[in-house]
Amino acid sequence: MSRPPTLTLPPCARAYSLTTERGAFAVHDARPVGVPAGTALLVPGFTGSKEDFIALLAPLAAAGFRAVAVDGRGQHDSPGPRDESAYAQGELARDVLAQATALTASGGGPVHLLGHSLGGLVTRAAVLLDPAPFRSLTVLSSGPAAIDAAQRARVRTLIEALGRLDMESVWRVMRALDPPEAADGATPPEIGAFLRRRWLNTVPEQLIATGRQMTEEPDRVAELAAVPLPKHVVSGAVDYAWPVPLMDAMADRLAARRTVIADAAHSPNTERPEETAAALSAFWNGLG
């Protein structure tokens, strides 16, 4: 679970509901001064939300990019039905395509797609359905297939708990499932309160369906490699969900740019946002 370092939007950003042909999605939209060099569509991971990208918004806008972080359907501030089928990967991928279409219509140049963790699997599926709306794809802390075996066991435990307990009770289970690095340092009270509120706002069927995706995802790297779209694989120096060597190998198979953010783990976007934003903007600027 990503822990945003702050909940305060920078002056360049605003929160609103993005209207698309597939419904409305809560977003944080940061604009640069002047004409944007492009728009970054930022898709969060499992148990995540748009707030996981707050620390990236100002540095990306300062680099000349519009940055739009989104809550997917059933995540935090975006509504979603109490039906697992609504959160099939194909449905979530079509939501991303609809978001990209809406952002293109509102201006801001080419759309650079980024998915964090589970979001990496969803954005990959979106590109495989239709790469046309995108100028590039960045996979952030996400691997070639299902998550590591130890994490699969933890997520399956969580799915089982979601099937028989209320969300408040499962919140306590989630605390036990946190990776070791999540225990380092004290979480500020306002961030802790937000994490609990976000959890309670998320539709349980969304968590069950996407949790299964993380434990069952097949290797689709060869399919993605065949898509003629510039690709970037970014991670921290260590990762508990997908071991870093797996992401190294995936980048090679994709002929993708590879960036490792020093002193970061599964969430470089929250742990080292300035360095992460610099790596992202350098990649996008290099595409011309």
TrEMBL record:
<keyword id="KW-0378">Hydrolase</keyword>
<dbReference type="InterPro" id="IPR000073">
    <property type="entry name" value="AB_hydrolase_1"/>
</dbReference>
<feature type="domain" description="AB hydrolase-1">
    <location>
        <begin position="41"/>
        <end position="279"/>
    </location>
</feature>
<dbReference type="Pfam" id="PF12697">
    <property type="entry name" value="Abhydrolase_6"/>
</dbReference>
<dbReference type="InterPro" id="IPR050471">
    <property type="entry name" value="AB_hydrolase"/>
</dbReference>
<dbReference type="GO" id="GO:0046503">
    <property type="term" value="P:glycerolipid catabolic process"/>
</dbReference>
<protein>
    <submittedName>
        <fullName>Alpha/beta hydrolase</fullName>
    </submittedName>
</protein>
<dbReference type="InterPro" id="IPR029058">
    <property type="entry name" value="AB_hydrolase_fold"/>
</dbReference>
<dbReference type="GO" id="GO:0004806">
    <property type="term" value="F:triacylglycerol lipase activity"/>
</dbReference>
